[in-house]
Design a protein that fits this description.
4-stranded antiparallel β-sheet; mainly beta; Immunoglobulin-like; two-stranded antiparallel sheet; 0% helix
Length: 97
């Protein structure tokens, strides 16, 4: 589960400007690796500034053993995938047997 707190604007759950959480395993680079499609999770409701919401995310692990960066961030419809500049967070992890 991932918890998130709304910034200084309402995060809309529906409509043209809806906000979704995007997550993926990548590298230390800010770019989404070639061939990787971030998993996107809809908000269960609108989230007002200062409110929190907890999202449950099902995410397949990386295809091969190695060191990865787990990226997460919010993005609006029509915007780029989550990056640090877009308010993303990252966790360094190892995927292996």
């Amino acid at each position: 589960m991932i918890g998130m707190t709304a910034p200084a604007r309402i995060l809309l759950a529906t409509g043209a400007d809806r906000v979704r959480l995007g997550v993926y395993f990548g590298t230390a680079s800010d770019a989404v690796p070639a061939g990787v499609t971030p998993t996107r999770v809809d908000l269960p409701r609108n989230v007002a500034p200062g409110e929190s919401v907890t999202l449950t995310v099902t995410l397949a692990g990386a295809a091969t053993t190695g060191n990865y960066t787990f990226w997460s961030g919010t993005h609006s419809s029509g915007c780029a995938d989550p990056t640090p500049a877009g308010g993303a967070g990252k966790i360094y992890c190892f995927v292996g047997p």
